[in-house]
């Protein structure tokens, strides 16, 4: 996408998927990129939860973390809405809206009635 910045005050559409060992991200139905798991494994492993916006500070990474496979530990700053998770592929795609009320922990979160702040940290 030519190193385009997305912190421009506009809403963007993001779709992130993983099919076996290949992860793909598509932005605004236009820019797309993908990469394979460094291990080549098609198994993600034990589900540690879903983290939206960043990882907890005490999150332990159980793999070698170097080079192109290095995890970026910079959190997301901005607003999110209309998040859906694909629950299954077969026999047909099944998507479920994320229920924010079920979140076990919220840090620096604004409720929907508060609106999206003009500037985030």
UniProtKB/TrEMBL annotation:
Q: Which PROSITE patterns match?
A: LAM_G_DOMAIN
- Write down the superkingdom of origin: Eukaryota
| CDD domains from the UniProt entry | LamG (cd00110)
Domain annotation Laminin G: ranges:
1-116
Protein name, UniProt field: USH2A
Native source organism of the sequence: Poeciliopsis prolifica (blackstripe livebearer)
What taxonomic ancestry is recorded? Eukaryota, Metazoa, Chordata, Craniata, Vertebrata
